[in-house]
Amino acid sequence: MGRLLMQHVATKTEPVIASLIDSDINELKLAAKKLFNDATILGGKGFGTSSLRLFATFAAIYLLVLDRTNWRTNMLTSLLVPYIFFSLPRSLFHLFRGDLGKWIAFITVVLRLFLPRHFPDWLEIPGSMILLLMVAPNVFALKFRNNWVGIGIDLFIGCYLLQEHIRATGGFRNSFTQKHGISNTLGIIMLIVYPICAFIFH
């Protein structure tokens, strides 16, 4: 009798348990799908911002190199040093702030002190940038670099350089028609695109 009763209870409860398990699995699927969608959206924004940051850094380095070689403008291109400081991707920033940066800064200072005549002019700005990375206080290196203050400084520098470039070339249209005009103008515009997108995404 007890055995029949247990079989009867088991046959009645099996569909209930199966339906509960099915509903739990469906809820887990919905939660996993929502998590995947949210992670994709956030990851896409983060990837886009970090890619723009990398492009803006390379654009600033390109403009610095160009100015030191054959561009030679009257613009204050040394402003690109703090721009690079605030926009340098985190992994590169910590690499140059570590032992590698210490060695580069040490060699730069030694060359500048003991061999000033053999120290090339084009190494002034890169040497200054490495020194700035090394000696910057933590409030700039860790706090301001990763929030809206650093992004605002980058935006200000980009806007200033763009208006100076347009003024030096005689207008926005002329900035695209002169020699190296397109690459220079696009490089400076890239300096503005990253901070604007970073403000939007943050």
TrEMBL record:
Q: Which domain of life is it from?
A: Eukaryota
Membrane topology of this protein: Multi-pass membrane protein
- This protein's record includes keyword Lyase: no
Q: Which InterPro entries does the annotation name?
A: COR413 (IPR008892)
Where does this protein have coiled-coil stretches?
Answer: none
Q: Which UniProt keywords apply?
A: Membrane, Transmembrane, Transmembrane helix
Chief localisation class: membrane
Q: Name one GO cellular component term.
A: membrane
Indicate where this protein resides in the cell.
Membrane
Any transmembrane segments, and where? 42-65, 100-119, 125-142, 182-201
Tell whether Transmembrane is among the UniProt keywords: yes
Similarity comment: Belongs to the Cold-regulated 413 protein family.
Q: Quote the protein name from its UniProt record.
A: Cold-regulated 413 plasma membrane protein 2-like
* Species whose genome carries this gene: Abrus precatorius
